[in-house]
Amino acid sequence: MTRDKMIYWGATGLLCAIFLMSAGMFFFNHGAVVTMFGELGFPSWIIYPLGVAKVLGVIAILSKQSSFLKEWAYAGFFFDALLAIGAHQIAQGGGWEMAIGALVLIVISRIYDGKLYR
Question: How far is Cα 41 from Cα 38, in angstroms, rounded to an integer?
């Protein structure tokens, strides 16, 4: 395996793990997420649609069936992480570190996806 493939799969694997764990928390620890979203100023009705979107985004990135859907998944993850950083900073409650890590992984994964699969 080449260096570029190792970087791509490492970043993509960690990225997908972060978003799947986040979606899992949305579905299986709903009460805690409702509390967290309330502290951040978000409505609780958005939790389940956002969890579904995260799972579908991971599927789109890993399946490589549609480059159009994959690009939208990267964009959605990018904006999700960016807005999470902003929301946690405004709420001054911490928790923004994981969002920055996810943002870095999104950028690395997308850059190496472009190098390897375009």
Answer: 5
Helices (H), 3-95: 3-28, 30-40, 47-63, 67-91
pTM attached to this predicted model:
0.90
Calpha distance 23→72 (Å, rounded): 18
Mind listing the pLDDT tens digit for each residue in 101-116?
A: 999 999 999 999 988 8
Beta-carbon neighbour count of residue 92 at 10 Å?
A: 7
Q: Say which residues have a Cβ less than 8 Å from residue 87's Cβ, sequence separation at least 6.
A: 40, 41, 42
- Rg for the chain (alpha carbons), in Å? 15
* Number of other residues whose CB lies within 10 A of the CB of residue 38: 11
